[in-house]
Amino acid sequence: MSHTQKAVGILIGVILLLVMFRFLFYGRVSRQLEQLKKESESLEQQISAAAIKVAGLGEVEREIAGVRRTLDQMEMQYPPSIEAVYQTITDAARETGLKISRRETSENPSGEGALRRYEIDIVALCSYRELGEFLDRIISSPILVFVSSLTVTADNPGPPNLSGEAELRVDMRLTTYLGKTNGA
Fold this sequence. Notes:
Elements: H1 3-77, H2 82-96, E1 99-108, E2 115-126, H3 128-139, E3 145-154, E4 168-179
Antiparallel strand pairs: 1-2, 2-4, 3-4
Helix pairs in contact: 2-3
């Protein structure tokens, strides 16, 4: 065999090795690379979708905060227990000088709603000014309390007391609504 034939044989052998390398090794790696590209595109789409959702979370968080504020306001307006209403009435009476001599409370069923209705009958002694201040404090409190009825009579039909104000007997009915708790 001559040098030329040996060189051609080696060249053909090298070409065959390169072709086999191309089909056996490079083809498999190329398929794996294609599969990784597809997975990468899929992950990029998922990341884009997640980014869109994350961008929308700010709006959802603002909506949740708004609902929480509304619930807090409703809990303030419609407390879960009557004690908060009693405390509001007691504080208003103490701050204005209204003297409560009797207080009776009754619950009135108000249907299947989320609220319970209570009526509070109060008998008190006070002056016109004290009555006005008391009613202003009750009506402007964060708890919803309505004056359902109000009867004012002079406690003693005579001259005004030492301060120049007539002493009044006040019979009033206050209506309030409490939130039902845990399906109560």
